[in-house]
């Protein structure tokens, strides 16, 4: 199959080479964070949770390794929420039709976030209690 001269290639959509690619990737990441913050209530709630937990982790009388875990767990939950939101957006972009596989994909994304919240609870509970 031949590609049309007007059809973009995957390489053309990558955003450049070398340092330009790094700058473009950083810009795309910031756009993704902004979109998540503006459009996803769950992401905003997790940002608030991070704004509370991370300073507490910095203040807590724990080892450096424990502090790293106390900070990493909530940040991991933010990353999971970004992926969960991406899954939901892709599913909705493909079709708004109710379909068992669409529901399953969205439910699995939600389950991943639930596991992330359990990780936070376990890490904070074990270290601080």
TrEMBL record:
Q: Which GO terms describe its molecular function?
A: kinase activity
Q: Give the residue spans that cross the bilayer.
A: 68-87, 108-127
Query: Which reaction is this enzyme known to catalyze?
Result: a 1,2-diacyl-sn-glycerol + ATP = a 1,2-diacyl-sn-glycero-3-phosphate + ADP + H(+)
Tell me which PROSITE patterns the record gives.
Answer: DAGK_PROKAR
| Signal peptide limits | none
The task this protein performs is described as:
Catalyzes the ATP-dependent phosphorylation of sn-l,2-diacylglycerol (DAG) to phosphatidic acid. Involved in the recycling of diacylglycerol produced as a by-product during membrane-derived oligosaccharide (MDO) biosynthesis.
Annotated family? Belongs to the bacterial diacylglycerol kinase family.
Q: What is the E.C. number?
A: 2.7.1.107
Q: Which CDD domains does UniProt cross-reference here?
A: DAGK_IM
Membrane topology label = Multi-pass membrane protein
Pfam families for this protein? DAGK_prokar (PF01219)
Q: Which InterPro entries match?
A: DAGK (IPR000829), DAGK_prok (IPR033718), DAGK_sf (IPR036945)
Report the source organism: Marinobacter halodurans
Quote the subcellular location field of this record.
Answer: Cell inner membrane
Cofactor(s) it depends on: Mg(2+)
**PANTHER family membership:** DIACYLGLYCEROL KINASE (PTHR34299)
Task: Say yes or no: keyword Secreted present.
Answer: no
Q: What is its main location?
A: membrane
Entry keywords, A to Z: ATP-binding, Cell inner membrane, Cell membrane, Kinase, Lipid biosynthesis, Lipid metabolism, Magnesium, Membrane, Metal-binding, Nucleotide-binding, Phospholipid biosynthesis, Phospholipid metabolism, Transferase, Transmembrane, Transmembrane helix
Designated name of the protein: Diacylglycerol kinase
